[in-house]
């Protein structure tokens, strides 16, 4: 039997095409949701873009019939705008204030009560990204669900970029002698499709000895090979753990124009990316410029407008980048870093606000805090990358400050999962924190 899904505003603002995600069921949009969407359409950000997009979609559906009646959708379901059922009588003793959330709850509850009176009454489900709305729905005996169709992965199954393989000592010795192995030589059950391109393999002795080796699957997925840049230091930075060794391999390989790094705070993502970018730009001359950018999304309450020119306004947002550059250049005096950067002229620190419309060839591009990007924003960024450029996306999906994103639907997670089987991309999840013992303990305990 089909169901009735009542959509909250945040579902439409997160994914304008969510109305087509409910198969052959009935989708109901309360009138108050349209009012909330209308109030967001003037925003010049991702929320405003989605508000305008859903407005256009609903407007196009008017050609199929009247919106307050059932309009057929391509997937076999229907859509209607609920203008009635705005009575607050059922909830006025529970929720005193007539907030928009409570009005949406009232619509869903009244529809549910109507269906209960019918012999063949259907289940009414409120769909919301707002946890407290779902809690309220449960309190009044109404079924509710989170909107999960926009999730790239379920739970914690995000691709890590590496895996362990148990092999015999003979296979390990053969790998050290030849520097590579056919994937079929790893043992029964391993074939060309067993791994992703550029995935790292930790070869371990099946008998439990300390013998091991670090290998990388080639682009053709036929061989596992030794790392090219194993134990190489970059601008005085040496890898402190095996995942950092993997990251350096990806960052220095010219045939990988896309690299994604995921890890908790203090795992070395930004430092390794900046060091490798500086080495390839300043020392090797592989790229004309090092471009560093990050989304302008505040943690906590926004400070409001900042004084000064663009560079002065960006400084507080980009301070984590400058902190790492000060470490790499070993600067100690105030203004010393600014003088170095001005003299070099090949390092550009930019806000992602200004990236639309640009074409960026022959540059090493670092996008920090990419977990705060939506799918649309990350697509916009990747389509700016020109010929001869390399882009590094990095962040921690567990530290998201964007109100409509989570660990499973953000742009960084989206890129990791979509590009994991592409030959031109590499990914690794950094596990161990190296900032300090306190930082690692805080990341684990808090």
TrEMBL record:
Any one annotated GO CC term: cytosol
Lineage top rank: taxon: Bacteria
Domain PIN: 3-135
Keywords attached to this entry: ATP-binding, Nucleotide-binding
Tagged with keyword Signal: no
Name of this protein: PhoH family protein
Entry's Gene Ontology molecular function annotations: ATP binding
Source species taxonomy: Bacteria, Bacillati, Bacillota, Bacilli, Bacillales
Presence of keyword Phosphoprotein: no
CDD domains noted in UniProt: PIN_VapC_PhoHL-ATPase (cd09883)
The organism of origin for this protein: Niallia taxi
InterPro entries linked: P-loop_NTPase, PhoH, PhoH2-like, PIN_dom
